[in-house]
């Protein structure tokens, strides 16, 4: 309930920004927004992988992406613009940022990650709930969802050749994203 409430709050705010840019600036800054609550079995798996004792304390304190939001945009530059807008939302605390756009992971994965705390106003008090925000382009999103299917979450090892090909695809995607920016700048 707390995580759902935090996501609802954040989604409302980001949708307002999405519509604001469309209506007031005639610009599709955000293509779409996805939200999800992490499956209990995925939470347990992550706690085991990270060798955390399976306690509620560790779940709340150490698992940062139980509530997750993905903001997908068209251009790479927009990622940095959006993350600055997130930082300007009143009352949101930024706990951590990881720039896998400038420095992709060895797998080739690219996205901008933020761990934020969102205020949820209950009847008697306000609680701050952690959410992970992933900001990426449509092209990065395509790569990540494909790679997720073939490799990231599968139990069996993917062979070295496939992993290498996926890294090559990620590099092509990155070049493609850069090309899109240069095309936009010509106009
Ligand atoms: P799922 O299925 O999305 O829930 P931390 O939170 O800092 O303690 P963590 O979670 O390892 O450590 O942080 P990181 O590296 O920022 O990764 C968090 C999420 O990013 C992952 O969540 C994935 O959603 C995504 N991600 C990271 N690396 C990759 C990758 O190589 N490929 C793909 N496709 N996605 C990646 P989960 O919980 O692992 O998975």
Summarize the structure.
By secondary structure, this protein is an alpha+beta fold. It is 51% helix and 22% strand. The chain has helices at residues 2-25, 40-49, 56-62, 76-88, 138-152, 160-186; strands spanning 32-37, 67-73, 93-99, 112-121, 126-137.
Record the SSE blueprint.
Blueprint: H1 2-25, E1 32-37, H2 40-49, H3 56-62, E2 67-73, H4 76-88, E3 93-99, E4 112-121, E5 126-137, H5 138-152, H6 160-186
Parallel strand pairs: 2-5
Antiparallel strand pairs: 1-2, 3-4, 4-5
The structure holds ligand 0O2.
Ligand 0O2 binds at residues 38, 42, 46, 64-65, 98, 105, 107, 109, 113, 144, 147-148, 152.
Task: Write up what this structure looks like.
This protein is of the alpha+beta class and 187 residues long. The chain is 51% helix and 22% strand. The chain has six helices and five strands. It has helices at 2-25, 40-49, 56-62, 76-88, 138-152, 160-186; strands at 32-37, 67-73, 93-99, 112-121, 126-137. Strands 1-2-5-4-3 form a five-stranded mixed β-sheet. The longest helix has 27 residues, at 160-186. It binds ligand 0O2. Ligand 0O2 binds at residues 38, 42, 46, 64-65, 98, 105, 107, 109, 113, 144, 147-148, 152. Residues 38, 42, 46, 64-65, 98, 105, 107, 109, 113, 144, 147-148, 152 line the site of ligand 0O2.
Q: Give the oligomer, counting copies of the same chain as homo and different chains as hetero.
A: single chain
Largest sheet entry: 5 strands, mixed
User: Unreliable segments (pLDDT under 50, ≥5 consecutive)?
Assistant: none
Query: Which ligands does the model contain, each kind named once?
Result: ligand 0O2
Radius of gyration: 18 Å
Note the total helix count: 6
* Main sheet strand line-up: 1-2-5-4-3
Quickly give the structural class.
alpha+beta
Q: Number of DSSP strands?
A: 5
Distance between the termini: 46 Å
Average predicted local confidence, pLDDT: 93
What is the helix fraction of residues, given as a range?
A: 40-55%
Order of helices and strands: HEHHEHEEEHH
Proportion in β-strands: 15-25%
Using the alpha-carbon principal axes, give the shape. flat
């Amino acid at each position: 309930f707390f995580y759902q409430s935090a996501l609802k709050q954040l989604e409302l705010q980001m949708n307002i920004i999405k519509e604001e840019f469309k209506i007031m600036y005639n610009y599709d800054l955000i293509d779409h927004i996805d939200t999800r609550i992490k499956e209990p079995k995925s939470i347990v798996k992550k706690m085991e992988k990270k060798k955390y004792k399976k306690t509620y304390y560790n779940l709340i304190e150490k698992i940062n992406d139980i509530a997750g939001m993905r903001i997908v945009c068209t251009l790479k530059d927009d990622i940095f613009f959006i993350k600055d807008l997130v930082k300007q939302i009143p009352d949101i605390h930024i706990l951590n940022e990881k720039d896998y756009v400038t420095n992709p992971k060895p797998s080739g994965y690219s996205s901008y990650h933020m761990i934020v705390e969102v205020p949820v106003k209950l009847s008697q008090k306000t609680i701050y709930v952690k959410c992970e925000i992933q900001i990426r382009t449509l092209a990065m999103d395509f790569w990540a969802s494909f790679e997720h299917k073939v490799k990231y979450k599968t139990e069996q090892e993917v062979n070295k050749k496939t992993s290498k090909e996926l890294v090559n695809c990620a590099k092509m995607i990155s070049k493609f994203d850069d090309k899109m920016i240069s095309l936009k700048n010509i106009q």
